[in-house]
Amino acid sequence: MVDRLVNCPRCGTKVVWSTDNLWRPFCSERCKTTDLGAWASESYRIPVVEMDDMDEQALPSDGPALN
Ligand SMILES: [Zn+2]
């Protein structure tokens, strides 16, 4: 049998695609968690930035009016 090799999407290392490789298609747990973490933080960042924008627009008009 010939092992099927894939490139780790995170670092490009050639990885043997087998059921023994728990992290496929990544080369290691670290690459897998790093990739998922980057994806998750990127999707989290979008709503946070939008909320910050709304706060910044609301604060200047609220501040002077209250004083
Ligand atoms: Zn990797």
Strand order of the largest sheet: 1-2
Number of domains: 1
Q: How would a textbook summarize the main sheet?
A: 2 strands, antiparallel
Percentage of residues in strands? 5-15%
The helicity comes to 55-70%
- Multimeric organization: single chain
Question: Quick one: CATH class?
Answer: Alpha Beta
- Tell me the series of helices and strands, N- to C-terminal: EEH
- CATH superfamily caption: Erythroid Transcription Factor GATA-1, subunit A
Shape: rod-shaped
Q: In terms of structural class, how would the helical and strand content be classed?
A: mainly alpha
- Uncertain runs with pLDDT below 50, 5 residues or more? none
What's the architecture, going by CATH? 2-Layer Sandwich
SS field, number of helical segments: 1
Terminal-residue CA separation: 78 Å
Could you explain how this protein is built, in words?
The structure is a single chain. With 67 residues, the chain is mainly α. The chain has a single domain (4-60), classed as 2-Layer Sandwich (Erythroid Transcription Factor GATA-1, Chain A). It is built from one helix and two strands, in the order ββα. It has one helix spanning 29-66, and strands spanning 4-7, 14-17. Strands 1-2 form a two-stranded antiparallel ribbon. β1 (4-7) and β2 form a beta hairpin. The structure holds zinc ion (ZN). Zinc ion is lined by residues 8, 10-11, 13, 26-28, 31.
